[in-house]
């Protein structure tokens, strides 16, 4: 018998034969963990119960993400360990789409159809955009871009808010497929390395970095932190590391039984101990995640319970149950004009969600799933698939169903444009002043009794002309740029572009909302209007209040430079606002505003200051959709505030501006609060598009009032 071969010789011969010989263990292949199906089911059940009755994050979604990493990446890496594995990524991608997309598109399609037909308060462009984002598994980034924090159920919350987790899951699946393909490719040339060896360091580093990022980003922006794939990765990555290494941890049966019991308690108690919306996926998220890890490591009676028939059934319907429950809860809350879902509505939603989840699982999920085994190296399934399509009725039915999914998905992608077109139609329609006099009703004009216009739900998506045209700087735009400089000179010039009389509108969105009447007045009285406006950025020479952003300060430096350069005939902006940032809700003159007036006085530039319109603010700090309130309640009392809830007894800017040459304070309070009540409808026109911005239609009706003041500064 010859001498034993060394390890290097064995590996060399293996490479020459093209067979992977590895001295290390491969990805463990164990029996299917039915108890983890039960864990997934009970985790989602708690998500539903907490969404419906508690209004808090239960931690169930975090457990769901951990299990997604455990199951999906485990299956990909087991395949990557095979000697005959294929580098073609189409099969796992197609299998994943067939498993996830049909149910998702069904829920989105039904939800949007119901919304468009019967729920006007949810017919918002932002919600339609979220439906599209959900189809492409980027809903988490859409919510982050919209600045939407994760809220408890109410009539104002998006019905697709919960799909952020599906987006994170889908993005992780793409990563898992790419990682497994890379491992297969590496093992083609270095078969001595197993998938465990190659994947572990990558997952360990990314999981650690992600967890650290989640801790840090909590202090930077918790809203983004909650939705971000990068800060959520550690939850899925830990699940993937568990599937690679947990089977190698040997514990006694008693220890496993204790671990499973403790773990299940941790998972189920999370929502009672903390609200993850405010802290996850940071350190507190370790509590439910480690609880799930203990269940994975455990065994015994808890595992038997989780593997029972009913728990496995709950696991089977977990995905469609998660998809259905939230849209149903929000849609019915809005349809029934409830601010928050009642207990009886919550019970009805749960019953309906379970029924729909069962039907979806039976007639959509399972029939559409890929049943065949994964193809191996150089194996083609195309010819076999075409043969089945021609000769098998079930295969044709699946193809028709797949085509239906595509059609519905394409229809959903058009929903934002349909709603946007409705906004354009509203903005281009002219209201008959004899029927809709708006502010003219304040002068005694007798208006007939008709339903107010325009549609208050469409108003919520409208913006004023400069913003709509792209001539207003918004969040994310370079604050060192003035938007009119990015276009031809006449593009962002409103009013009469050929006039030599220049009026500059400066400030934030509360100044820009006056653009509609200024545009029409400019055409009528021969002056041009140029907006130098930025979202949430009043104009000042120096920031003295300590509440405005660095971007706003930089933007105002450019505005002041431009005003000094052009010496306009008149500058218009707001003269007051509430300092909500300092807990003060009554209008006042911020100290920063006075620095603008000092600058203009030094340069002998006339100024007209418009007192701010009322802000309707909920106790939570959110804007009150006051026009929608009246549409639903038909009560001026219930949808109004008294004048002294917002306005000081005397215009705070009057004394300051009256002492300066060519400066005028315009007290607009009487335009919004007749008889000391600030109301949502005046002259059959809805006054507000949201909680603190005027509708263009009402602003237009104020044009005569505006001109009676402007002419004192523009006409010699």
Automatic annotation (TrEMBL):
<dbReference type="GO" id="GO:0009103">
    <property type="term" value="P:lipopolysaccharide biosynthetic process"/>
</dbReference>
<dbReference type="GO" id="GO:0016747">
    <property type="term" value="F:acyltransferase activity, transferring groups other than amino-acyl groups"/>
</dbReference>
<dbReference type="Pfam" id="PF19040">
    <property type="entry name" value="SGNH"/>
</dbReference>
<keyword id="KW-0812">Transmembrane</keyword>
<feature type="transmembrane region" description="Helical">
    <location>
        <begin position="38"/>
        <end position="57"/>
    </location>
</feature>
<feature type="domain" description="Acyltransferase 3">
    <location>
        <begin position="34"/>
        <end position="360"/>
    </location>
</feature>
<feature type="transmembrane region" description="Helical">
    <location>
        <begin position="100"/>
        <end position="119"/>
    </location>
</feature>
<dbReference type="InterPro" id="IPR043968">
    <property type="entry name" value="SGNH"/>
</dbReference>
<feature type="transmembrane region" description="Helical">
    <location>
        <begin position="198"/>
        <end position="220"/>
    </location>
</feature>
<dbReference type="Pfam" id="PF01757">
    <property type="entry name" value="Acyl_transf_3"/>
</dbReference>
<keyword id="KW-1133">Transmembrane helix</keyword>
<keyword id="KW-0808">Transferase</keyword>
<keyword id="KW-0472">Membrane</keyword>
<dbReference type="GO" id="GO:0016020">
    <property type="term" value="C:membrane"/>
</dbReference>
<feature type="transmembrane region" description="Helical">
    <location>
        <begin position="286"/>
        <end position="306"/>
    </location>
</feature>
<feature type="transmembrane region" description="Helical">
    <location>
        <begin position="342"/>
        <end position="364"/>
    </location>
</feature>
<feature type="transmembrane region" description="Helical">
    <location>
        <begin position="232"/>
        <end position="251"/>
    </location>
</feature>
<keyword id="KW-0012">Acyltransferase</keyword>
<feature type="transmembrane region" description="Helical">
    <location>
        <begin position="318"/>
        <end position="336"/>
    </location>
</feature>
<feature type="transmembrane region" description="Helical">
    <location>
        <begin position="399"/>
        <end position="420"/>
    </location>
</feature>
<feature type="transmembrane region" description="Helical">
    <location>
        <begin position="163"/>
        <end position="186"/>
    </location>
</feature>
<feature type="domain" description="SGNH">
    <location>
        <begin position="487"/>
        <end position="706"/>
    </location>
</feature>
<protein>
    <submittedName>
        <fullName>Acyltransferase</fullName>
    </submittedName>
</protein>
<dbReference type="InterPro" id="IPR050879">
    <property type="entry name" value="Acyltransferase_3"/>
</dbReference>
<feature type="transmembrane region" description="Helical">
    <location>
        <begin position="258"/>
        <end position="274"/>
    </location>
</feature>
<dbReference type="InterPro" id="IPR002656">
    <property type="entry name" value="Acyl_transf_3_dom"/>
</dbReference>
